[in-house]
Amino acid sequence: MIRTDLGLSYTEAGIITSAFAITGGISQLPAGYLADRFGPRVMVTLGVSGVAIAGLLIGLSGSYAFLIVCLILAAIVGGGYHPASATAISAMVPAQYRGRALGLHLIGGTSSFWVVPLLAAPIAVAWGWRGSYLVLSLPALILGVVLYALLGRWADTQKAGHRIVNAESTGAPVRINWRKILPFLLMSVGGATMLQSVAAYLSLYAVDHLGVAQSTAALLMAVTPAVGLFAAPLGGYLSDRFGGIPVLIAVSFLTIPLIFVLGIVASVMALISILVAIGLVNNTRMPTSEAYIVGNIPEQRRATILGLYFFAGSEIAGLMTPVMGNLIDRLGFQTSFTIASIIVAAITVVCSIFLWVSRRRAVNLTPD
């Protein structure tokens, strides 16, 4: 609806997504450090209420340029939420349940991506797409204030009044093993961002190639996050049960055919099936990656490294989305998605080899 109202090309539509993603990625870096320095309460609350205020401004936007400005503002204030919240949750639970806890946390995010399109589509039909932002930002603003009060109860139990620390949080590494972390991060971020850059155009694909109505296309975009209601806790359980590396490798290899098949989908039912599979892949990758990072990073640097992780994901996705839009403009959906699947395959194979070598070295260095 935004594309139609403002008369945008695929590339310009992609810039809408990348404006938020690129700025949000940059803001993760200082936000992660600030969460480690001052605790998660302020950063989490700012990420909720601050984005809600920006959403109200988006609802008042009258031009493409002002819309971009508002999205940048939303990304700046919202950048601290993910590293701060993941760090807080990881500190509150024993290590053996960390993946499941992070998976349960993702239900909130995936539910919003599922519920919001169902609410936004009829509101937009009645009052335009700007009306959706105005109506839905108000309860988010109120919830941010409530969240601030609830987090204050935990903060008040700490001596400094800010940090959330779990007395059972033991066994954290003293140093960062970059040989393990870097290939893991690259494989996780590489697969996720390529899938995001492709998924950003699926609603337009449904409208332009499958003949789906605009409001119906918005509802279709609720399928993938809806899967997260059960897939995110399941992904966290698998991570706790089998370890982060095996689960991520399996998910990364599954991503390759999913992206390729999206370019040749010929019916709405087939698209829905692929959206369900994407939901399973995405919501397994996220808690697995967060739990692995937290488990291999010293406690005092967790939010900082998580900020780096979210920064990389947002930046690459933000940069790749308009690039993908340009490829679609020039080459079409099928060829563009095929190129994306080849890139994911190359990243997955190379990083899997590095992780395997790193694991073998660790085994060889372990005393009998």
Number of strands: 0
Query: How many distinct folded domains?
Result: 1
Rough shape?
globular
Helix/strand-derived class? Answer: mainly alpha
Question: Architecture, according to CATH?
Answer: Up-down Bundle
Secondary structure layout:
Layout: H1 2-6, H2 10-38, H3 40-59, H4 64-78, H5 81-92, H6 98-127, H7 129-155, H8 178-199, H9 202-209, H10 214-220, H11 223-242, H12 244-262, H13 268-295, H14 302-331, H15 333-365
Characterize this entry briefly:
It is built from 15 helices and no strands. The protein has 368 residues and is mainly alpha-helical.
Model description:
The chain is globular, with a radius of gyration of 20 Å. 83% of the residues lie in helices and 0% in strands. It has one domain (2-163, 176-365): MFS general substrate transporter like domains (Growth Hormone, Chain: A, Up-down Bundle). It is an all-alpha fold. Helix 2 packs antiparallel against helix 14 and helix 6 packs across helix 13. The termini are far apart. The protein has helices spanning 2-6, 10-38, 40-59, 64-78, 81-92, 98-127, 129-155, 178-199, 202-209, 214-220, 223-242, 244-262, 268-295, 302-331, 333-365.
Could you name the key traits of this structure?
mainly alpha, 368 residues
